[in-house]
Design goal:
This is Glyoxalase superfamily enzyme, possibly 3-demethylubiquinone-9 3-methyltransferase. This protein is an alpha/beta fold. It is built from two helices and eight strands; from the N terminus they run βαββββαβββ.
């Protein structure tokens, strides 16, 4: 596993996802789902809470991963919060093909919800917007036009 190329003290912005006990499953799902489609997708570091806590043993104390080269951080909060993810903040992913948009929309949306089904919209020839089973929102856009009848 490698660390982020950002040097300590260098200003940066990284999305940070807070889960309550399911961070490891979510991160593994994201990497398994995106890695076959886009390069630069991997877990770069993973630290779990041990028996001495403060979180439940085996939950994520800190995790760094990348999707299409975008660094993302995640962890499991051991404190319950009265909020979760919202589609007001989402990941916008440019994909190489219309088939990738359809496949990822189906995979990511399973157990979650479809906000905008894969379709041609005025701003895109093929776009989809889904929430995954953890409530994280993904906007998927094809970088190339959809094939006629597809």
């Amino acid at each position: 596993m490698t660390e982020s190329p950002t040097l300590p003290g260098t200003p940066s912005v990284t999305p940070f996802l807070m889960f309550e006990g399911s961070a490891r499953q979510a991160v593994e799902f994201y990497v398994e789902t995106f890695a076959p489609v886009v390069g630069g997708t991997q877990v770069t570091s993973l630290e779990l809470y041990g028996a001495d806590g403060p979180g439940p043993e085996g939950t994520v104390a800190a995790c760094s991963f990348t999707v299409a080269g975008q660094p993302i951080r995640a962890f499991d909060s051991f404190v319950h919060h009265g909020f979760t993810f919202t589609p007001a903040v989402s990941f916008f992913v440019e994909l190489p093909s219309a088939a990738d948009v359809r496949t990822l929309a189906a995979t990511l949306g399973e157990g979650g919800g479809e906000l905008m089904p894969p379709d041609a919209y005025g701003f895109s020839e093929l776009f989809a917007w889904v929430n995954d089973r953890w409530g994280v929102s993904w906007q998927l856009n094809s970088a190339t036009p959809a094939e006629p009848g597809a």
